[in-house]
């Protein structure tokens, strides 16, 4: 986890720039932050790193940016990574010393291997990440896939950047949906004839359609579930656990794993809500209204959070009800209780036991359970929730209440990854109406993967891009997963997605298969050349010049900063964009600069190809995409 090559060069440039500015304009008082903000990475031939500081100095020195840039550039002397500095149109442009910088990048990749690009900005701080939290009465649909993939990828990125991530799945087993599904389950005479979550989902859809005429029966079931410790509540937990096990068959197909399941029934029976309500009352942020619209309700006044950065500068509602006048707690109250526990701010403890002894990642999955043992889950310094954008107001309110309780550091570490809706080729999804049960094509996560795999198999069978020695079915499966994950993650989280097979399975550009093929092509070149990597034998960089080889090297040198940017912004699309840039540059490099027949440049070009394969494998891993070498 050494320093980023591009950062080392940048630090040298800033040092040179700071010294030159101090000499040329001693009274300017330009600080490090201002120099940092002035930097950019221009396109060739405008240098490798550039500063716009002359535009800021123009206001102080009362001279044109062009004159100032020229004056500053003349006072900069070349150091190890920078060969020359030029002024152009008011910008100070620096050029890296190609051979020295190339050596730095290639040696860094060589020595660090799978750790290359990683960072320690997290400093070991614990993050409790919650995703996808699907109700245990139905299969995952394609919208749930987005929550799962975002949560998994952002968790991977944060771990790569030095955070400790605890992956939590919240199971709402006390809701009306579970009561309706349980009623239908007890009423039906048939046995499940398919994957249990899909079968139960069908029963739930039928029950939901009959909810009004069976309201009394279903309400009685719900009451028994909430009371707990009775035959009905035990049966509800039994079918919910069975559904969750089926959902995890889907999760594992997508490479999604968790550390612990948190069940709402266990949260309720642990009296977590009561403790949270006591906290808001003693903390003075909630009160029972004596008159008006909210008479008899326990409410929190949101205008008190007006100094909270962001959304509460101008709150859209002045109060939020935590407990209604009939004594029923709202979702906001329940969410507050759970998130206070996540931060370790509640004295209530849960017991846990093993739910699945070994997931495909070789780690056990634990679950809350009254008959388990205490373990160290929860207590994060930060929390991350991947929840669709429609829930943003609720998430904002929970964060505001944590802030009002005086936990400002925790409120700052409360991350809601709001994501847009997902559609498939002109169709929309509404879980309650059961659109995922269409007769012609189902829209479950299982069906999405099955159909994408079939389309992939049709494409790879007989394709000249695929090695004749490769297993078509295995390759099709890998391509399908890369297609789905890349297509989902390349779009900024807050934007909606219309999943298109034509786009997702495009081998020519902007897709997971395109990036996977680039990686496989690199590995094929190395295999054909008989290249055996050794940390002791690094290619001579005296053959490196101002060509596509150096442009590719520069891009690889930025890996750590790219990972950190994706981490700070919680945006996996930063990684997908980087991978597409690498793939495009590699294509230009390979087409214009012979590798195996590169004569004197052969060794260093092979090392560039090797380094690319390492960087791409590391970055694809952050998206949850496993590489294959035979394509």
The name CATH uses for the topology of the largest domain is Rossmann fold
Poorly predicted spans: 428-433
Query: What is the level 1 CATH name of the largest domain?
Result: Alpha Beta
Strand percentage lies at 5-15%
> Considering the protein shown, what is the CATH homologous superfamily of the largest domain?
HUPs
How would you concisely characterize the structure shown here?
The protein is α/β, with parallel strands linked by helices.
What does this protein structure show overall?
This protein has 631 residues and is α/β, with parallel strands linked by helices. The chain has 3 domains: 5-96, Arginyl tRNA synthetase N-terminal domain (Gyrase A, domain 2, 2-Layer Sandwich); 126-424, HUPs (Rossmann fold, 3-Layer(aba) Sandwich), CATH 3.40.50.620; 445-622, Isoleucyl-tRNA Synthetase, Domain 1 (Orthogonal Bundle). Helix content is 48%, strand content 12%. It has 23 helices and 17 strands. Helix 22 packs antiparallel against helix 23. The longest helix is centred in the middle third of the chain and has 23 residues, at 231-253.
Give the SSE map.
Layout: H1 5-24, H2 32-37, E1 39-40, E2 49-51, H3 53-61, H4 65-74, E3 82-88, E4 91-96, H5 98-112, E5 126-130, H6 142-160, E6 164-171, H7 176-187, H8 196-209, H9 215-227, H10 231-253, E7 260-263, H11 264-269, H12 272-282, E8 286-288, E9 298-301, E10 319-323, H13 331-342, E11 351-356, E12 365-368, E13 373-374, E14 382-388, H14 392-404, H15 408-412, E15 414-419, E16 422-424, H16 445-460, H17 472-489, E17 497-499, H18 501-504, H19 512-529, H20 548-556, H21 559-569, H22 573-592, H23 602-622
Parallel strand pairs: 5-6, 5-14, 6-7, 7-12, 14-15, 16-17
Antiparallel strand pairs: 1-2, 2-4, 3-4, 8-9, 9-10, 11-12, 11-13
Helix pairs in contact: 1-4, 3-4, 5-20, 6-21, 7-8, 7-9, 9-10, 12-13, 13-14, 16-17, 19-22, 19-23, 20-22, 20-23, 21-22, 22-23
């Amino acid at each position: 986890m050494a320093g980023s090559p591009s950062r080392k060069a940048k630090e040298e440039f800033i040092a040179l720039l700071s010294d030159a500015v101090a000499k040329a304009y001693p009274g300017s008082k330009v600080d490090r932050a201002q120099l940092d903000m002035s930097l950019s990475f221009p396109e060739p031939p405008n240098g490798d790193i550039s500063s716009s500081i002359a535009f800021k100095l123009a206001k102080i020195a009362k001279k044109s940016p062009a004159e100032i840039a020229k004056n500053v550039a003349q006072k900069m002397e070349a150091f190890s990574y920078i060969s020359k500095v030029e002024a152009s149109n008011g910008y100070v442009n620096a050029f890296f010393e190609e051979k020295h910088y190339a050596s730095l990048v290639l040696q860094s990749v060589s020595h660090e291997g799978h750790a290359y690009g990683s960072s320690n900005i997290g400093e070991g701080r614990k993050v409790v990440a919650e995703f996808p939290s699907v109700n245990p009465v139905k299969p995952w649909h394609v919208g749930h896939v987005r929550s799962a993939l975002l949560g998994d990828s952002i968790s991977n990125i944060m771990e790569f950047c030095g955070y400790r991530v605890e992956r939590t799945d919240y199971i709402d087993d006390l809701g009306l949906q579970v009561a309706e599904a349980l009623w239908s389950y007890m009423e039906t005479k048939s046995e499940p004839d398919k994957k249990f979550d899909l079968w139960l989902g069908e029963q739930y859809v039928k029950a939901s359609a009959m909810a009004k005429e069976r309201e009394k029966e279903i309400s009685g079931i719900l009451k028994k579930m909430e009371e707990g410790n009775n035959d009905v509540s035990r049966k509800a937990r039994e079918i919910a656990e069975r559904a969750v096990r089926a959902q995890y068959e889907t999760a594992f197909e997508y490479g999604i794993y968790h550390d612990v399941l948190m069940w709402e029934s266990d949260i309720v029976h642990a009296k977590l809500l009561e403790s949270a309500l006591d906290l808001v009352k003693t903390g003075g942020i909630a009160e029972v209204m004596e008159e008006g619209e909210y008479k008899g309700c326990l409410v929190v006044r949101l205008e008190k959070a007006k100094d909270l950065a962001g959304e509460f500068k101008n709150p859209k509602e002045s109060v939020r009800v935590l407990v209604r006048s009939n004594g029923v707690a709202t979702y906001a109250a329940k969410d507050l209780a759970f998130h206070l526990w996540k931060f370790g701010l509640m004295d209530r403890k849960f017991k846990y036991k093993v739910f699945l002894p070994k997931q495909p990642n070789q780690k056990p999955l634990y679950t809350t359970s009254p008959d388990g043992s205490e373990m160290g889950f929860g207590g994060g310094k930060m929390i991350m929730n991947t929840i669709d954008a429609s829930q943003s107001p609720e998430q904002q309110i929970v964060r505001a209440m944590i802030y009002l309780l005086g936990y400002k550091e925790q409120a700052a570490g409360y991350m809601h990854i709001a994501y847009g809706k997902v559609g498939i080729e002109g169709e929309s999804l509404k879980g309650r109406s059961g659109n995922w049960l269409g007769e012609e094509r189902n829209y479950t996560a299982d069906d999405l993967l099955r159909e994408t795999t079939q389309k992939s198999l049709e494409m790879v069978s007989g394709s000249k891009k695929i090695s004749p020695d490769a297993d078509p079915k295995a390759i099709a499966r890998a391509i399908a997963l890369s297609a789905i994950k890349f297509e989902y993650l390349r779009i900024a989280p807050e934007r909606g997605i219309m999943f298109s097979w034509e786009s997702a399975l495009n081998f020519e550009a902007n897709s997971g298969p395109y990036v996977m093929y680039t990686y496989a092509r690199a590995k094929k070149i190395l295999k054909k050349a008989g290249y055996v990597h050794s940390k002791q034998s690094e290619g001579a960089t005296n053959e490196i010049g101002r060509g596509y080889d150096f442009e590719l090297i520069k891009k690889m040198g930025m890996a750590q900063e790219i990972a950190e940017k994706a981490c700070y912004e919680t945006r996996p699309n930063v990684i997908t964009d980087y991978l597409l840039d690498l793939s495009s540059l590699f294509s230009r490099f390979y087409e214009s600069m012979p590798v195996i027949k590169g004569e004197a440049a052969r060794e260093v070009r092979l090392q560039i190809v090797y380094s690319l394969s390492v960087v791409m494998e590391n970055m694809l891993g952050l998206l949850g995409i496993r590489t294959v070498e035979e394509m």
